[in-house]
């Protein structure tokens, strides 16, 4: 919504065509159909209300307040906005609190009377009423006896239901997710209970269940799922050449000692985890020499000058790596491109994001310069 300074009433001219292209590309519809600025010599439609959900609006139009040439635009929704009840938060001030008197009242209160009730709920109601008389506010007490007996206070199970918006139309209730906010005491008890149950059940849960489990996340689930799909799609589809490549270099990991190796086609990485930088350097040099010899023995061209090293870790101070392999000093880099992704020593992917942003910026620049010279279909092709 706003004044785009583009006259929609002239779609054949440059300004009007830009607005029409914008509506077509983003599937928008203008709710304003009448001129929004009328003078003695011209009438233009500059103020627009664009939406991709015109069905939720009852009407849109122009109102002339008779105070200027520019008219006001408006649009009204079909459905009424949901009115939520106001929430009142109560707080208690401690400025005038007499701590000594407060402690004295707590000590003198007949808490032992509650032990005479049979159920934990009756005990809780008594203690709650007694405590409210002293502090004039509900402060639930934690009943360890209830936990030992396998029972739980009913009021601790009650939560406040709130609706959290997910996506799409905010006026439709199906686009909200119900969330229950439970008392803090109940959450603490759930954590303790979950720790005990997890020790018994974690090894018994199926590997297909990944939510709310240690060392599992949305990322690991997506990676596992996509890799499974990829493996199924690749069955019987690998060409003979890549297969022979894998067979040819299958024995290389056998020469690696005290280190990890990753091999994807002809991209090979060796990495070491050690508390001592000097020990890590020696392991890398030894394995680097072995790999270089393996390349030479198998008649592969070795480019030692293209070897790169990167230091990862929280070690403060000296972070330089001194590696000499095949008579060439290995260059230390703060960022290395592996399999098309720029990995930096902090693993925050800033270099990769910057690289992708630069490429995207170039495409956007081309689209900006050609926006009035090529049709919408060509723009979409460049965009995709």
From TrEMBL:
Keywords: Nucleotidyltransferase, RNA-directed DNA polymerase, Transferase. Residues 239-343 form the Reverse transcriptase domain. The keyword ATP-binding does not apply. GO terms for molecular function: RNA-directed DNA polymerase activity. It holds the Pfam family RVT_1. InterPro entries: RdDP_mobile_element, RT_dom. This is RNA-directed DNA polymerase from mobile element jockey. It comes from Stylophora pistillata (Smooth cauliflower coral). The gene is pol.
